[in-house]
Automatic annotation (TrEMBL):
This is ABC transporter related protein. NCBIfam families: sufC. GO terms for molecular function: ATP binding; ATP hydrolysis activity. PROSITE patterns: ABC_TRANSPORTER_2. Residues 4-249 form the ABC transporter domain. It comes from Methanobacterium paludis (strain DSM 25820 / JCM 18151 / SWAN1). Keywords: ATP-binding, Nucleotide-binding. Gene3D superfamilies: P-loop containing nucleotide triphosphate hydrolases. It comes from the Archaea.
Length: 255
């Protein structure tokens, strides 16, 4: 069985159909990329997988680890191992990043400790996070890149089996995209050999520049709420660069 199996999904928002005929299958250890123009429904698919109530599934099903999660709450999905990085996460005044990390990091432990676990601290050092960063209020006055990095730290603490990123590269300076991509690669086990990769991912990106640095197995192009084509990320990106999203659909072989 695959980690995530989406079959014939249709989704309405405010009684309007936004997505239809969505089939998406992601295996353990795989990273898929979702490309598409603004307004094509990328974030809607993201929110539907996460189970936000206003994204009304009218057809089809979503299986996670073989279990039908279509009717489960967002909290239940997160508890099953779905992790997310939002496009525009809010700032939280008065809550330090460390406070937020402690919730997941200390879960199931007696510890009311001020310190994070050695494992998490090792990972923060590996990803070159400055310790003073942990003392700052969540996302308050953070740069675009710092917001994304704080989300990555939160995901590290949560240890999900599947991570969705909604345009992690939006609002990030071009010179920081490579650094961000390295962190995403670490999160998605890309530094391990293919057979040893445990974690899966779905990376949504508008422009695709980040794909120069993030390893992905398959890309899908979403157009007007449908998956217009799927295939090798490098080839699809090349088609988009040459002819735009429409061109890609025309030369895609797999439908
Ligand atoms: P993308 O992430 O690819 O830019 P979205 O999923 O945000 O696309 O939007 C897909 C479509 O759904 C758009 O046409 C948008 O107008 C519509 N949409 C998004 N959010 C809402 C909402 N809250 N209410 C009504 N329509 C929405
Ligand atoms: Mg958008
Ligand atoms: Mg979006």
């Amino acid at each position: 069985k695959l980690l995530l199996e989406i079959t014939d999904l249709a989704v309405e928002v405010n009684k309007k159909e936004i997505l239809s005929d969505i089939d998406l299958y992601i295996d353990k250890g795989e990273t898929h990329v979702l490309l598409g123009p603004n307004g094509s429904g990328k974030s809607t698919l993201f929110m539907s997988i996460l189970g936000f109530p206003k994204y009304n599934i009218t057809r089809g099903e979503i299986l996670f680890k073989g279990e039908d999660i279509t009717k489960l709450s967002t909290t239940q999905r997160v508890e099953m191992g779905v992790g997310v990085s939002f496009q525009n996460p809010p700032a939280i005044r008065g809550v330090r990043l460390k406070d937020l990390l402690k919730i997941e990091d200390h879960k199931g432990l007696e510890s009311q400790d001020e310190e994070l676990s050695p494992e998490l601290m090792d990972l923060t050092r590996k990803l070159k996070f400055d310790e003073s960063f942990l003392e700052r209020d969540v996302n308050l006055g953070f740069s675009g890149g710092e917001v994304k990095r704080s989300e990555i730290l939160q995901l590290l603490a949560q240890k999900p089996d599947f991570i969705m990123f909604d345009e992690p590269d939006s609002g990030v300076d071009i010179e920081n995209v490579e650094l961000l991509a390295e962190e995403i690669n670490t999160l998605l086990d890309k530094d391990k050999k293919p057979g040893l990769r445990e974690r899966s991912g779905l990376l949504i990106t508008h422009l695709g520049y980040i794909l120069n640095f993030v390893g992905a197995n398959t890309a899908h192009v979403l157009m007007d709420g449908k998956i217009a084509c799927s295939g090798d990320p490098t080839e699809i990106l090349e088609d988009i660069r040459k002819e735009g999203f429409r061109g890609c659909v025309e030369c895609c072989e797999i439908h």
